[in-house]
Design a protein that fits this description.
Elements: E1 7-10, H1 16-27, E2 31-36, H2 39-51, E3 56-60, H3 66-79, E4 85-88, H4 108-134, E5 139-144, H5 159-178, E6 184-189, H6 207-218, E7 229-231, E8 234-235
Parallel strand pairs: 1-2, 1-4, 2-3, 4-5, 5-6, 6-7
Antiparallel strand pairs: 7-8
Length: about 240
């Protein structure tokens, strides 16, 4: 790898939006580390992208594990010495399947598991990888959120997922504020309703449309925005 080549990590990269984001970043010349909780699935996804001639490798990552997050950081430090982009895409949506789609009878365990992955997972991985960005004073962090986390038009249903995405937006604002004055930019985005395993087959958007804003935020110029929430490259309400 040439030292000038940018290095990107995409969490939850073995399918859906994470897989497409890995593809699109690699198409822009990035060395992409596609991470997945399931090592075999991650390797299969990376193989598929390598077959397209793209510079993608896989690495196992469980965002709920401190040791796993630190192992990833150590691997990147040893192999590449730096990190330019982090796309925090790994997330779970288990409200309906656990009978917790209504907050009046939502199981606290469901809320807790969702927040552990969707919020604490992002904090854990970001904390582990930010030193690789600080060392070169360059970084782009994209947190994959959702319109379901917007307080402005918050409605009922899916409480675990909604609460986790609202909290994720708070995490974005806090990281952006604490990193202000550095060239590490942190933003949230909503991909819209996309045809993926999570979004289902009725969704109107293709994965490519879903990741467009993700890739745009991952490749912002040095005077780019930070601490924002975007859909279709436009700021949206919190």
């Amino acid at each position: 790898m040439s030292t000038s080549q940018r290095v990107a990590v995409v969490t939850g990269g073995n399918r859906g939006l994470g897989f497409e984001a890995s593809r699109q970043l690699a198409k822009q010349g990035y060395k992409v580390i596609l991470t997945s909780r399931d090592e075999d699935k991650g390797q299969a996804a990376a193989n598929k992208l390598q077959a397209e001639g793209l510079d993608v490798i896989s690495y196992p990552l469980d965002v709920t594990s401190e040791a796993s997050s630190q192992n990833l950081a150590q691997f990147i430090h040893q192999q590449f010495g730096k990190l330019d982009v982090l796309v925090n895409n790994a997330a779970i949506y288990i409200d309906a399947q656990t009978g917790s789609n209504n907050i009046l009878n939502a199981k606290i365990d469901t809320l807790s598991k969702t927040i552990e992955t969707n919020v604490f997972g992002v904090v854990r991985v970001t904390q582990a990888l930010i030193p690789l960005m600080q060392a070169q004073n360059y970084g782009r962090i994209v947190n994959v959120s959702s319109g379901m986390g917007q307080l402005t038009d918050m409605t009922g249903g899916s409480p675990g997922y909604r609460i986790s995405k609202t909290a994720l937006n708070a995490v974005t604002r806090i990281f952006a504020s604490e990193l202000s004055g550095t060239n590490i930019l942190v933003n949230s985005m909503c991909p819209g309703w996309v045809k993926t395993d999570m979004g289902g087959s009725n969704a109107p958007r293709t994965p490519e449309q879903g990741v467009d804003t993700m890739v745009w935020l991952a490749t912002l110029p040095d005077d780019g925005t930070t601490g924002g929430f975007f859909r279709d490259r436009q700021p949206i309400d919190w």
